C-alpha cells in the first residue's frame, strides 16, 4: 500500500486521537480512540469503517486554513481506495478499473451485449419467452461461472484484509452485530442521529442513508427474484416465463424500481458533494459502478415491460450483457465496499467484545 497515504492518515489520526471532539460520531472514532499508535493495519481498518458521511470534517476546528489542515474523510478515503486495489484478486484488475472505470464498464457491457446478440444464431429450435433467444442451459453455462468468480475473488480479498488488519478469531455473533448495523445503515445516521451533510455542509439529511438502503434492498430483492425462480425451475418443475403476479416477477419489479431510483439519486448526491472530501481520482470509478448497477436494473425493467414485443431479443442481449459485466467487475468496483465494510464492522465487534 502507498506509504504516503498511510503516513498522512496516521498524522491525522494522531491529531484526532488527541482532540476527541468527534467521539461517538460513528464507528471510526471508538476504534480510533482505542489505539495509542497506528499500524498500517489499524489505519486500513479505520478507513473501511468510515462511511464518508463527512460530519467530522464539518465539525472540526482544525481543517484548512488551520495549520493542521485536517481532512480525515479524504485521508481515510484514499487509504480505503488503495486497500481495495491492493487487496483485490487479481490486483491488476482492481487498479485498472479505478483508473478507467467508466470506459471499462461501457466497453464491457457493449462487448457482452454483442456476444449475446451473435449467440442468437445458436437459439434453440423451440423455447418460450427469453429461452426462444438463448436456451436455459446456455444461460446457466455462462452465468454460473460469472457468479462464482466474484465470490471466490472477494473471499480471497477479504481473507487478505482480515490478516492485514490483524483481526482476532472470526465469530458468527460478531457477524450478526455487523449485519444489524449494516441493515439500518447505522453509521450514516450522523453523530447525533440527524443524518449526515454529505451533499451540503449546512444541511443534515438522511438522504444518503435512504438511497443506500434503496440500492441495497433493491439489489437483494433482485437477487431474491433470481433465487426464487431457480428454486421454482429445479424443485417445482416450473420454468420461466412467469406471470406478472408471480413471486419472481413481484420481487424483480420492486427490486428493479428501488435499484434504479436509488442509483439515480446516489449519482445526484455525488454530483452535489464536495469531491475534495473523497478519494483522490476515484470519482469516475464510483460513478461508473453506480451507473452500471442502475443500468442493469433499468434494462431488466425494460425487458419486463417489452418482453412480448419485437424488441425483446435486442433488450435481452443488452440486459444480459449488463448483468454479466456487473458480476465480473464486482470485485473491482465499489460494489466490493459493502463486503469490506461488513468485514470491518465484524472485526470491530470482535474487538469491542474482547475489550469488554
TrEMBL record:
<keyword id="KW-0812">Transmembrane</keyword>
<feature type="transmembrane region" description="Helical">
    <location>
        <begin position="242"/>
        <end position="264"/>
    </location>
</feature>
<keyword id="KW-0472">Membrane</keyword>
<feature type="transmembrane region" description="Helical">
    <location>
        <begin position="139"/>
        <end position="158"/>
    </location>
</feature>
<feature type="transmembrane region" description="Helical">
    <location>
        <begin position="101"/>
        <end position="119"/>
    </location>
</feature>
<protein>
    <submittedName>
        <fullName>Tricarballylate utilization 4Fe-4S protein TcuB</fullName>
    </submittedName>
</protein>
<feature type="transmembrane region" description="Helical">
    <location>
        <begin position="276"/>
        <end position="304"/>
    </location>
</feature>
<keyword id="KW-1133">Transmembrane helix</keyword>
<dbReference type="InterPro" id="IPR012830">
    <property type="entry name" value="Citrate_utilization_prot_B"/>
</dbReference>
<feature type="transmembrane region" description="Helical">
    <location>
        <begin position="214"/>
        <end position="236"/>
    </location>
</feature>
<dbReference type="InterPro" id="IPR036197">
    <property type="entry name" value="NarG-like_sf"/>
</dbReference>
<feature type="transmembrane region" description="Helical">
    <location>
        <begin position="310"/>
        <end position="332"/>
    </location>
</feature>
